[in-house]
Specification:
Largest sheet: none
Order of helices and strands: HHHHH
Shape: globular
Number of helices: 5
Number of strands: 0
Radius of gyration: 16 Å
Strand content: under 5%
Bound molecules: zinc ion
Length: 136
């Protein structure tokens, strides 16, 4: 459920970025959509690891797929003030940086010090670098 809430906020970030401008919206949308595959994978895996049935895990995956669309659509209902928009996007970026640097990467490399973990970390960074390059 937390992953679904997170994905809804991903969608809000897309909508908020489009309120800044089309270029910013496209860049944020591409970055969010690119990482949403990992969100879906994590949603299914976490739901399964906590002992839930496959049917429930798939239901959570569907909810996780709908959440960003609903989050982005919700921003059509309001305009975020210019000052708050930068603060929101800064907060969103900071939260993602913290999660990646302080939680996800240390956990990935803690009990899995394999070469494949390192290669996948580098491949993930290269993939996002490519997405950002395409979006600009
Ligand atoms: Zn996400």
């Amino acid at each position: 459920a937390a992953m679904v809430g997170h994905s809804a906020m991903d969608g809000v970030a897309i909508g908020a970025a489009f309120q800044v401008g089309g270029g910013m919206g496209t860049a944020v949308a591409m970055a969010v959509i690119a990482h949403d595959f990992a969100d879906g994978f994590n949603t299914y895996t976490l739901t399964s690891l906590y002992g839930n049935a496959r049917r429930r895990a798939i239901a959570m995956l569907v909810a996780d797929a709908i959440a960003p669309v609903a989050g982005a659509a919700s921003t059509l209902l309001f305009t975020i003030p210019e000052g708050a928009l930068g603060a929101y996007l800064g907060l969103f970026g900071g939260v993602l940086l913290y999660l990646a640097a302080a939680e996800i990467l240390p956990e990935a490399h803690h009990e899995h010090p394999a070469r494949s973990t390192l290669l996948c970390t580098v491949a993930g960074a290269a993939f996002i670098w490519l997405v950002v390059g395409i979006a600009e």
